[in-house]
Amino acid sequence: MKSQQEKEDYSFWTKYKQFAKNEIMLYVVMVIGIILGIILFS
């Protein structure tokens, strides 16, 4: 039972890490775009 649960947690965390990486990249690109926009327009 415990090994099954660990296996599920492992697959969940690998999927979550992949998702989190994409989210972080998206936010980084957005923040850089906003900062560049402020610098250009100010």
Strand and helix layout:
Elements: H1 2-41
Label this structure with key terms.
42 residues; mainly alpha
Main pleated-sheet profile = none
Radius of gyration, in Å, reads: 18 Å
Order of helices and strands: H
Distance N to C terminus:
60 Å
Low-confidence stretches: none
- Roughly what fraction of the amino acids lie in strands? under 5%
What's the shape? rod-shaped
In percent, how helical is the residue content?
Answer: over 70%
> How would you classify the helix and strand content by structural class?
mainly alpha
The average pLDDT is 84
Tally the beta strands.
0
Number of helices, counting only DSSP H or I runs of 4 residues or more: 1
